[in-house]
Amino acid sequence: xxxxxxxxxxxxxxxxxxxxxxxxxxxxxxxxAFEAAAVRVVNVLGSPGAGKTSLIEATARSGRWAGRIxxxxxxLATANDAQRIAALDVPVVQINTGGGCHLNAKMVASALPExxxxxxxxxxxxNVGNLVCPASFDLxxxxxxxxxxxxxxxxxxxxxxxxxxxADLVVLTKTDLLAHTDFDPQAFARHVAxxxxxxxxxxxxCRSGTGVDAxxxxxxxxx
Amino acid sequence: xxxxxxxxxxxxxxxxxxxxxxxxxxxxxxxxAFEAAAVRVVNVLGSPGAGKTSLIEATARSGRWAGRIxxxxxxLATANDAQRIAALDVPVVQINTGGGCHLNAKMVASALPExxxxxxxxxxxxNVGNLVCPASFDLxxxxxxxxxxxxxxxxxxxxxxxxxxxADLVVLTKTDLLAHTDFDPQAFARHVAxxxxxxxxxxxxCRSGTGVDAxxxxxxxxx
Lengths: 223, 223
Hints:
Two copies of one chain form a homodimer. Chain A is an alpha/beta fold. Chain A has helices at residues 15-36, 52-61, 80-86, 105-111, 156-159, 161-165, 185-195, 212-220; strands at residues 40-46, 69-75, 92-96, 122-126, 143-149, 169-173, 201-203. The first copy, chain A, has a seven-stranded parallel beta sheet, with helices on both faces. In chain A, helix 1 packs parallel to helix 4. The radius of gyration of chain A is 20 Å and the shape is globular.
């Protein structure tokens, strides 16, 4: 007697897919909480040392959202960045990921009880310094800003395209170093346009103050 | 009648651990191949735009290992870096990770058939620009060099400690920008020493050439 072969179902464990799906669920809950409180949330992404914290400091210092701005800081270790923000009398929560290479929606959710969302118009979330992994994890934000410095070179959008794909704005920082580097702004703009034709690029230097008002205006129009 | 409760074994799926173990096995095979061919392999790590490719270019240009140096380039996308190296008449293989945030031992193993290891004394592997994830993946290298630029700020070792923990050398690049940034070399040295007391730091500028000879000497002593 011949045995009828019944093909078995192949069980595929898609760890990354599952992780992403679980993350998206929590991100949706975060987003609902942010919308209920009418707070604009910006996910600030970029390499280590791109100038993310300096940009957030400049935003907090401007006084445009005085008393109505909050910050979440993501780092592998230390509370250095949160201390820089707290010094400006802005509510801030530091998330330490241990060795983790990005923030995820759950980490942000765990920080929210420490934040009085009802008091805020604007919440800036500084992600872990990393031009790769944070791109794949929705935190529930409404806007994504990629910070890239002139010192990193003009080819970064071509070499790290994923994170630029979902960005709403690119802030090109440390433009005060332009005269001292080989950075080619035209090449940078071309690489950005190759990924997203209409993605705006804002030139900025926290050191000289150039571009900070334009950044604040961009943000004001969206809060 | 009371049922005797037998505690069940809890099955833990440690995806990351399994990934690491599988990687370590391939890394060991890579290492054996490198040792059999008497080739020194350096894993070059650092943030996007830290100056890894420029350091490798300077090494290739020096002529110290003329005809006996090879390069493997790791990037999410593009063959830009490999083209820079190929222009110097050095054998080079470009690995594109797709969206992957680090090189692993398998990727390096897949590049080895393209390399005549017997002809080499020195193989430089430029990892994906990322100060977090590459730290966890052994490629079979004998030396790890972390490249960190003055433009990134002095606090990076404190904020990204894992990658500095297993390093054999820190190359502080873009020292020509020192006069134009707030970078504090003493603070940087202190942060590095907090992680590894005797980890050497080499100051270097590919632009001015300062420190390049010291880097080549360090490397020569190890090949």
